[in-house]
Amino acid sequence: MSVAVQPWPVRATHRESGMALVAVMWMVAALSLLVSSLIYATRAEIRAVQQLRDATDATALGDAAMQLAVFDLHREQGEAHSWQRRAYRFDGREVAVTVVPSAGLVNINRADTGLLTDLLVHAGGITPQQADRLVSEISLRRKRSTPVALPDDADRQDVVQAARRQSRFDVIEDLLEVPGFPLELFDTIKDFITVRSPGGAVDPQAAPPGLVGVLAAGDAGTAERFLERRDADDPAKDMTGIKHTTRGARRDKLYRLDADVVTSSGVVYRRTGWVDLSGVADGLPFRWLDLYPARAVGTGSEQL
């Protein structure tokens, strides 16, 4: 008597094994994705904490260095009329403080259209045609500072246009409200402009190096020669290449201070403040007008 042997269902077994393998692979992939997400989130959190620590560190060191710079300026009776760079050390770390008199910056409320155009072209890097259009918009905004009487039945367009004519720039960021003024252009020129200087001209002795190129109408050679003699405190500076309309600026005792702090990661943070050294009614020798949050501006090799 023979016994019949039933064949093993090979195909069904292979199919089930394949499905199990696919399920395992999907689980491994899902777990890998989850782990990668956790690693990415952890790294992002670490970077955020590092940036916050660097900004806090830069704020403390920058404030300390700016205070020392203000005390030095006060001892000098506020006679610093030129752009200058000072250095202060704290626990072996050097903080560079740049002192910029207000007369060395372009007042966007008072500067003439020629100076504004040169600023946008030579510092901002746009074409003269683009600059002319933006300067026209700037002039329209600052054209009037006194209220304009309108009839009661004036339409909305008349009201809007009158408001634009009345408006002036209270802070430099108001430039971004000018129609068509790009953020990238503002970021390029913001270190060269102010609303605080006493006149519409710029004192080249007090101007930042980058702005001297604007005063020289983009002539790099003229700007370099002037800066070399200015840095050497040479009284016989060659001013022939500097535009006459930008000289003879009135001076005051308003200063912008930029404190650059290099963090342990090599990033440079800048803490900026405005100070008035003319004295105030309550007897204080100076007062802070503005303090801006520390911001990353580059690396140590690029900035210092």
Provide keyphrases for this structure:
44% helix; alpha+beta; 7 strands; 5-stranded antiparallel beta sheet; Pantoate--beta-alanine Ligase, Chain: A,domain 2; 8 helices; 304 residues; 3 domains; two-stranded parallel sheet
Question: Explain this structure to me?
Answer:
With 304 residues, the chain is of the alpha+beta class. The chain folds into 3 domains: 111 residues, Pantoate--beta-alanine Ligase, Chain: A,domain 2 (2-Layer Sandwich); 77 residues, no CATH class; 37 residues, no CATH class. Helices cover 44% and strands 17% of the residues. It contains 8 helices and 7 strands. Strands 1-2-5-6-7 form a 5-stranded antiparallel beta sheet. Helix 2 packs across helix 3 and helix 6 packs across helix 7. The mean pLDDT is 81.
Structure summarized in a few sentences:
This protein has 304 residues and is of the alpha+beta class. It has helices at residues 10-75, 113-123, 128-142, 156-166, 183-189, 209-215, 220-231, 300-303, and strands at 84-90, 93-101, 106-107, 193-194, 254-262, 267-276, 287-299.
Task: Please specify the SSE layout and strand pairing.
Layout (H helix, E strand, L loop, with lengths): L9 H66 L8 E7 L2 E9 L4 E2 L5 H11 L4 H15 L13 H11 L16 H7 L3 E2 L14 H7 L4 H12 L22 E9 L4 E10 L10 E13 H4 L1
Parallel strand pairs: 3-4
Antiparallel strand pairs: 1-2, 2-5, 5-6, 6-7
Helix pairs in contact: 2-3, 2-6, 6-7
